[in-house]
Amino acid sequence: MAKGKVKWFSAQKGYGFITTDTGKDVFVHFKEIQGDGYKSLEEGQPVEFEISAGPKGEHATRVVLR
What we know:
By secondary structure, the chain is mostly beta strands. The chain has strands spanning 2-10, 15-20, 25-29, 46-54, 57-65.
């Protein structure tokens, strides 16, 4: 799993970006946040995730809080 921190996340829009520990920005959608209940992320929050290729480029999947 990759590690990083939330760069920004809009709960209203349901997406944002994670910056990996290597400095790469990766798109994240709220549906990829693991866990029950309201799914949102806070700026600077440490996370672990998988990186998958999609039609618009790479995106984070299976996002969990560290």
